[in-house]
Fold this protein.
Amino acid sequence: MRTTIKNYLLTLLVFVLLVTAGVRTGLAQVPDPGTPGPLPVTREEYDFGDTAFQPSSFPGSVELRASIHYPTNLPAGPYPVILFLHGRHATCFKGGSQLLQWPCTNGAETIPSFQGYDYVSEVLASHGYVVVSVSANGVNAVDNSVFDLGALARGELMQKHLDILKTFNTTGGAPFGTRFVGKFDLTRVGTMGHSRGGEGVVRHYVLNNSLGAPYGIKAVFPLAPVDFNRFVVNNAALNVMLPYCDGDVSDLQGVHFYDDARYNVPGDTAPKHYELVMGANHNFYNTIWTPATSSFPGAANDWLAFVPGGHSDSQCGSVGGNQRLTAAQQRGTGLAYMTAFFRAYVGGETQFLPLLTGDAPPPPSAQTNKLFVSYHAPDVAGVRLDVNRLLNDTNLTINTLGAAATQTGLSPYELCGGPAPQPQRCIPDALNAQQPHTTPSARSPLRGLSQLKTGWNDLTGNYKNDLPAGLGNVSGYQAVQFRVSVNFADARNLAGLAQDFRVVLTDASGSSASVRVSDVSGALFFPPGEVRPVPKIVLNTVRVPLSAFSGVNLNAVRSVQFAFNERLQGGVLVTDVAFANSPQ
Amino acid sequence: MKRSVKNRHLAITLLVLPFLLVTGSNGFGQRNPDRELPLRELLNVPGKLVSEAKSSRPTTELKLSGYRVEEIKLPRQLNVELHGQQVAVDKAWRVTVQGGPFAVRAMPAVIWIDDQIVGNGIENETLSQITAITFDSSLIREGGVVSLSYGEDKEGRVRISQRLHLTREGGNQ
């Protein structure tokens, strides 16, 4: 009997500890979105010919070919639809030579770039999604000769495939007959585009809207994208994935998609996210572009192939101790966050939201923890309260709430990166590619992200944003958050060492509590690497749970401060100070 | 910085103006691209050799082995903006760098002469050449240095060591 009671108490203790840990971290409740689901999957392709589609004002014809993954026998439905679009790559090959022509001629064969994301399609389909991956070799063959570098052609190609799916879904059609009639839910569509395909899916979102939104695009995922033209996604969920060791789009210009969308449309109900994936390159998200998994010419480790001297970089290179992800690990990050994003925002599986806000760590399918999640909450009352957007010089003294913004002991204390008169770049002596938020765009004069550039020389440095009395009730928010990066060019930061400071909340009675950033986030790392285009500045979101500020009356908060008293000196770039909840 | 932006705008203008002038308004209808896109036409029309260089030792990066600059007579006169002025042109210059095989990348190849952008490069089918077109004769100057980058990465350009040496009739005489 005694042993039984003892065992019972022990079990109870373990249970209490587990529950407590679960509440504190929120980890236990988040399943892994990247594990295969219960449904068997069938993969097929349709192919209406290499020259079946002519994009408008485009100098070449394009194939209408795609793969389609779906739950075998389609036991239920209609299923949400996810479309993938690959990026720019060689189109044909002959022997060991890659070619850029379309259609392939003189015995050359097609490089099937569209097959390179099957590893994601299979998992999504096993959870009840229809996934279509579109071939775009005809665009790739000639897109450099049009002004927008193929963005519109890619958008039109996506729309054409949705038209084809609509036919399959309504009347049916070859080669599938009536198999898919009533099986596609084209009011719930998500799109993922890689590289130039990333800009392509953004352009497609804008095109679909311009046509009266015949398809319900709920979520757009640019993966290692270019952003030549600066089109913007608003009112649909956005997720940009940024590989730190990208050797092709090495300036990570796709971060503009997030930056440009944030305050672009008042009342924008859509959340925005990005992941900075340390050690990842451009190509390894596509198995056809990856040497270890491809039998086609043109596959390359882009960091090593395109970055002069890149092999010697301690982060991205091939020297001993490098921090590169393997191709499988890299695909893991793509799998985890694509599935989380589409299942959350297209499928309504909201249990994955903590992964996308950064409140939960990467799931096991990501195969690495070396990534940083950024999150911009919807512009909805009670979901986001902007404290300081840091958009213009006024925000140096008066914040977005109309209250005082002040500083003590900070130098510099200035904005950079945004519209004139701000300096275009925050670090004058660094390359554009080392400053993705402000890197120029090939087809747009738009400036980049307005950021507070600041630093401190002793432990008294302080940045303070007051809250008006009428707006001090933040008890309904989960976290106070901001984006930040250590400025690698500021000599007050020691190379290789993380920075730190404290976030302080003070209430109307004068009670304060502080949280050390390093206790909740790794975002204050010193940007790694030595061979340009690294190190580089990417601001990452820090979300500090309000539950951590014990003793502060969250119904009457009067200020948010950054107290730079954890390190003797340092320099950082900051923006987007806000209280925020998860998307609802 | 201003200069860089100006260069970019010039390049954009050079690329887009002929396109717009010939195509008229955009739309989603089907069109005959062969009649509407002079840029691709200009890749193939015969040209007069202005300058050429070849090296038996390609550059280490990008494996550039030479260049060719040709003057081409336009099939019709075009109005373009050069240095902020609308001008009618009846000639263009085709600058081709040779080497490779060049990778097909997301970032476009950009051809430069000295510190000015000639234009976005267009790869040939076998990826042994990249060509850009300019209507600005002032770029084609004796002693100019031809270089190639991906994106407008001025610091990352790879230069061809042989400078432009213009034939008597060609270039900005």
